[in-house]
From TrEMBL, chain A:
Domain PCI stretches: 48-207
Primary location group: cytoplasm
GO molecular function: ribosome binding; RNA binding; translation initiation factor activity
Cellular component terms per the entry's GO annotation: eukaryotic 43S preinitiation complex; eukaryotic 48S preinitiation complex; eukaryotic translation initiation factor 3 complex
A biological-process GO annotation: formation of cytoplasmic translation initiation complex
Protein name: Eukaryotic translation initiation factor 3 subunit K
Record SUPFAM superfamilies: ARM repeat, Winged helix' DNA-binding domain
Lineage, highest ranks first: Eukaryota, Viridiplantae, Streptophyta, Embryophyta, Tracheophyta
Oligomeric and partner information: Component of the eukaryotic translation initiation factor 3 (eIF-3) complex.
A Pfam entry, by short name: CSN8_PSD8_EIF3K
TrEMBL record, chain B:
Name recorded for this polypeptide: Eukaryotic translation initiation factor 3 subunit L
InterPro entries found in the cross-reference section: eIF3l (IPR019382), PCI_dom (IPR000717)
Organism: Actinidia chinensis var. chinensis
GO molecular function ontology, one term from the record: translation initiation factor activity
PROSITE patterns associated with the record: PCI
Role according to the record: Component of the eukaryotic translation initiation factor 3 (eIF-3) complex, which is involved in protein synthesis of a specialized repertoire of mRNAs and, together with other initiation factors, stimulates binding of mRNA and methionyl-tRNAi to the 40S ribosome. The eIF-3 complex specifically targets and initiates translation of a subset of mRNAs involved in cell proliferation.
Amino acid sequence: MGRELVQKQQQSAVSYTVEQLVAVNPYNPDILPDLENYVNDQVSSQTYSLDANLCLLRLYQFEPERLSTQIVARILVKALMAMPAPDFSLCLFLIPERVQMEEQFKTLIVLSHYLETARFRQFWDEAAKSRLIVEVVPGFEQAIQAYAIHVLSLTCQKVPRSVLAEAINIEGLSFDKFLEHHVVNSGWILEKGQGKGQLIVLPRNEFNHPELKKSTADSIPLEHITRIYPILG
Amino acid sequence: MAAAQDYDDGAVHSQPVDGYDPNYVPDSAKSFVVHLYRHIREKNVYEIHQMYETSFQTLSDRLFKDTPWPSVDAVAPHVDNDHVFCLLYREMWFRHLYARLSPTLKQRVDSWDNYCSLFQVVLHGVVNMQLPNQWLWDMVDEFVYQFQSFCQYRAKMKNKHEQEIALLQQYDQAWNVYGVLNFLQALVEKSMIIQILEQEKEGLEQFTATDGYDYNGGSNVLKVLGYFSMVGLLRVHCLLGDYQTGLKCLLPIDISQQGVYTSVIGSYIATIYHYGFANLMLRRYVEAIREFNKILSYIYKNKQYHQKSSQYEQILKKNEQMYALLAVSLSLCPQVNLVDETVNSQLREKYGEKMLRMQRYDDEAFTLYDELFSYACPKFITPSAPSYVEPFVNYNQDAYRLQLKLFLYEVKQQQLLSGVRTFLKVYSTISLGKLAAYMEVDEPTLRTILMTYKHKTHAIDSEGKIISNADIDFYIDDDMIRVVESKPAKRYGDYFLRQIVKLEGVMNEMDRIKLD
């Protein structure tokens, strides 16, 4: 237990330094090994830093001989996990086309495509075939499930059980446990639908309940009001 | 400033026209440098600006139409051999060369050396001049432009002569991407411009209020170069395809306000063009549309004042490119209410028909997206050195092709959304089953299409918040789709603020009138 703690402290010491490097001295080929190690750290400790990964991809752009496809693949998997943020595309913009033509990257691009177009069933099918690529990164499944729930929450007030189960790729008893967990922790409500089976009522937000949308369009920042303070006297 | 001509120079041995004697200094040129030198020593910014902006152009047109200016060695004796003035003169010398002629490899390398020396001098803080913002902006702008030009030039390996390739390998430090980025970064850091802007917000510093000029007897050069370098960094990162970092570099500048970046029209345009483009690639369409609208409106009202400027053509070119980008953004995110009437009428004139066809998302549409993107995008670069192993290929288009491909990929993913929009405009509620039948898909497929619509129209902004780009929105209640009416926001608050200030102005005016 003690050793794990020290290791974790060492990891956080490393990540502190790397983030500083990226902020202060990013255009420096010498930090490339640090950035590569940091990618591996992100994978094992389930953290994520887009800025550091973009910095590394840039350095690979400047010195293509030093590009490690394994590291790039890991960066892309982490970026997928960051959805709905567009990180995956941002990374692709920096990866040379001939690298993107390799099998594992083609697969990752297909996976991203399925997620971008909400084709969850096809996504999980393809991911199952590509265990080697995606299972190296802990937390992958949970991250994608969170994204699926995010998209469903944007779209629906209530979602049929079967639709949700397919989107997050959980069935049977595990699915019931999953539902229970979210009823307790995320405010989900289970309802009996009209003959079609169970409905899950997702939490209310401004996207699936437009009446909750704050009308920010007419709000005025304080700085603008200060302009007329002298007039108001 | 990037020349009006396309810098696509295949010329290798382009020497200036016969009859050019680098040591011959015509009287007007001599007079020019003598006066410019004196004005710089006396910190007479207004005179410097007149000479830089007007006299230099007039003399170039009259005496040096297609030859370089006299060499710095011929000019130096007239200006006390002043080291810094010579660096400045050389910078203008090379800029003139790039604009009117095609630089040789040796000239490109020499220009790089000159920038290194000039920036080193500035970074060491030994410069005690006040130069016009126009000049300082042009330095940064030209620096990035020559870098871009060099990368394009170097990537065309196919028809290069042996000596040229040998020279390229020999001068591998010239226009090295690390060097370029680190100089810009160094200028930002050494000038402490980020801290200055922060402190200005709290009233502890004056920078924007004085347009960057130093009224305490000091120099504005490092500070303003540092400021413009932030725009330079945004530009370089866009050329590399790193839009996220580019926007980050620009963050200290508040583009919702006037600032030093708006004091020079070239800088204003470059900033907003790249900001808008980066947001477009980040799928933040509303943000891109808003900023393009503002600058296009500004150009429309102000371009007449720049007709005599050497930059006029470049202003017009960027104007056209931004209309193309606006057309693309609006086709992907149809929120025409964000656009001013003047800009909208110009847009409809130039791209009205094409926009209609782009929103059909058929094969022809993709050709149009390709056409507009290719016309308006930055000249992307491959920053790495070429492989000096045969066979030699031209890879100068690789970067552009990748960005185009990824952009069209995104457009393709949004293909089905226009179909959804058409139906949502017509119905206030419709069942999933019915809509699926109309769109000729099964219900599960319809669900994925609707979720895609929601995902693509809700972007993540720089703070991780979800922002809606959607012109038409909906939500699903069990199996009914309910369309949300979006009324355009009437900005009463802004309107009242403006009227209050205006009325106060009128009342003050009236108070000032003395009645006999």
